[in-house]
Amino acid sequence: MKLWLLIAFSLLLTRASWAQNPYPEIDSLLIRAEETYQVNLDTALVYANKAYQLALASRDTNTIAKTIVAKSFYHFTRDEPEEVEKVLRFIFENKDRVPISNLGQAYNHMGGIYYRHKGMEDALRMYFKAVEIHEKAGNSAGLARTYLNLGMIYRKLEKDELAEYFYEKSSQSASHNKNVNIHDLSDTEGLTGARKQLQVTNEALAKIEDRENSVLAAVLYSDRCNIHLDLGNYAQAISDGEKALSIMEEVNFGTNYQLTHYYIGTACLRLGQFEKAKYHLNQAIESTNILKFKAQFYQQLIETHVGSGDYPAAFLASTQLSTIKDSINTIQENDRIAAITAQFETEKQAQEIEILEGDNQLKAAQLKNQKNILFATITGVVLLLTLLFFAYKNHKIKQNLQFSELTQKLLLMQLNPHFLFNALNGIQYFIKKNDTKKSTRYITNFSGLMRNILENSVEKFISIKEDHDTISDFLALQQLVHNNSFEYQVEIDENLDGANTAIPPMFTQPFVENAIIHGVSGVSEGKISVHYRLDNERIRVEIIDNGKGIYSEKKNANSLHKSMGTSITKQRMENLLKAEKYPVELEITSQHDGKDGQGTKIMLTFPLKYL
Fold first, then answer.
1. What pLDDT is attached to residue 501?
2. pTM of the entire structure?
3. CATH 3.30.565.10 for domain 453-607
4. H or E segment to which residue 535 belongs
């Protein structure tokens, strides 16, 4: 009976998400059911039934699924197994349409019913299915609860080693942050913690009789593969991973399938077994739809292609990784816009409530003192007009700021493809020449540069050090393309804190590009220097070349070469001043005697800003 109550309590923990519903009346009923169920379970079920009927009328699948999960919990608490199975049938018949979190909760509820009325084996089957669903959803809280239930059942079966294993898994899932890398163990004890987990897993495996046909054995072998990978036992990791895959295919069980391929591929890469690593990493990529997983799998695949010397394949994988990262950035941006929209709607409602309260106060004042009716009316109208005026002004300011921000990001997106196009031409040039050594260097520098650009393009400001590294990589690439026809130097003054001071990203690069193309190109012994320094609470960036120069002693931005990069940079300067109150100054100094150029000096001045 105690185990029964613990399972019921773990199901209760899932109710926190029930109230997140776009229908206020349904929300209210679910909340009232939650508030009253411990006092009067029958009343709670009445509220849940009303919410369920309203959800059916709405014909919204997500809303119906949430009310069903709530309703099934109260039937479970009343020990009504037939009602639980009946109400959950809708979720199981619409697996592809309902939210995956609700599907995992439904399997959890069925596990509790099966434990109570059908036996341990059926309950375990339901809980393992819930594990599979929560793994796909990346639901650490759901996994923690399900592992806890599994541990309690194995404790009841007097299989203490297995119970201990699942208690440990529950603890790990509960402590995992949603941003933790999929390959990292939440382990503050280093290898000592990993070895302890290995011991627990080995003891659990030893208690399984028919390992070749056991879902639990597949889970344990996959976990042990991951542990050996962290400990550096790569051959053992491959062996355990292959056993796990074999059992999964035999019993048709998909939990950890893609991660197991990833673990094996990583171990093969560490051992230099590149072809085998490629196979397993490609299997991992094909078997998951989770973009975060795909991005990590592609990163490992790129390393494998580079290690095997297959640079075209590495470049193709890099392109695919870029596409995935773009998709992730788009999703994050959409979420951010949705959050801003929701915040705006909340503020709008608050303003409307404020106006209504003011109107009520005005009416109360009119009833209290008839002599002041005219005065109170005029005051109320003025107050209303003032509120509307400030609300409208606030709305316009937000619109302008959002427009400037989005325009600035659009300009960055326009700049990056132009930049990357020039770099890709360099890669194509060396590949056509069959220059393996330079191709390798170029791809290595290009991958680092591309990573910096992708990371910087979504930021408003980056550190001086990050800008320094990007410019250094860019000049290294261009030096290769131009057969070392020029020298360069990129340095940060000692009195400038490069790690903590910031400037907007991709400002320096267009002018460095101009220095190469329109300055030192075709000049013998060309030299380019980029210098970051602090000057009277301002950051100055100097780009100096000894190239052909410009036909005037002093020029403004309009006399610079009208490349796409510099044109966009000028627009960004205007937007930064408008949206961020962040003025950027540009000064160009050049001398030309009609025959031989004496170089050009670009001075960019930024306000001092800390990250």
1. 95
2. 0.39
3. yes
4. none
